[in-house]
Amino acid sequence: MLHKHPPHEMNAERKDAMQASRKADAHKVSGQVGERLRTYRKATNLSIRALAEKSGLSVNTLSLIENGKTSPSVSTLHQLAQSLNIPIASFFEEEQPQKRVVYQRAGERQQIVFSHGHMEKLGEGMPRLGSEPFIIKLESSANSGNDPIVYAGRQFIYCLEGHITYMVNGDLYPLAPGDSLIFDAFIPHRWQNTAATNSRALLVLCPIESADKPPERFFMP
To answer: Is the pLDDT of residue 22 over 60?
Structure first.
């Protein structure tokens, strides 16, 4: 003979199960936020003490967050996001698997269109370790605009087709096929396709700061 539980006992069991589920979800989120915080902190070469001074939070608080032992408030996450120069949503995004080998056939790379040209990212899917390689195609009227580009790092360009002229600190560097140029990118610089046709080049951007995004400045004058 089956014994039925009274309704109030069933409700109590359901509430306990829901509370346990919420606690498990909260613990999972706290762990994820802590892992993301540690990853971004190390990517910017900051110690916990350095981040504490920069964010105005205590070392103990940061340690608890990184180890998933406390759930930070929205205001705390905002302080951390500002200190690390990342969107606050970055703490909750699902981590994408990173590749260790990238093999791309000609014509199969994703085309990313920008003003007066497009680019092909050669290292798509790999973790960035200080450099990003691109193949760029520039239309005849393409240029970086009137404002110079400046960022902390280094830039390398190897001309494949056409003619591209760089102005670095006021000096002109015309690049024909086979010519290359490398320079410290904190020096104000601009570029222009000076050929009557399209030009192509291998471009390698090497920012020092992991939060810096020189591709956006290069491709969007």
So the answer is: no
- Counting residues of the chain whose pLDDT is more than 70, the rounded percentage is 70
Question: Model pTM?
Answer: 0.53
Q: How many residues would you count in the chain? A: 221
Contact status, residue 144 vs residue 192, Cβ threshold 8 Å:
yes
The residue that leads in pLDDT, 22 or 75, is: 75
Structure tokens at 181: 């140029």
Tell the CATH topology of 111-219: Jelly Rolls (2.60.120)
Q: Report d(CA 212, CA 133) in Å as an integer.
A: 15
Q: Which CATH architecture group holds 7-91?
A: Orthogonal Bundle (1.10)
As beta bridge partners, residue 161 has 200
- Band of pLDDT at residue 21, cut at 50, 70 and 90: very low
Domain boundaries, given as residue ranges, for the chain: 7-91, 111-219
User: Residue 75 phi/psi, 5° resolution?
Assistant: -65, -35
Alpha-carbon separation of residue 220 from 6, 38, 105, 118, 213 (angstroms) = 67, 31, 27, 11, 12
pLDDT at 25: 41
- Strand segments (E) across the chain: 111-114, 117-121, 132-138, 153-161, 164-168, 171-175, 180-184, 189-193, 199-207
> Treating both helix axes as pointing N-terminal to C-terminal, what angle do 48-55 and 74-84 enclose, rounded to 10 degrees?
110
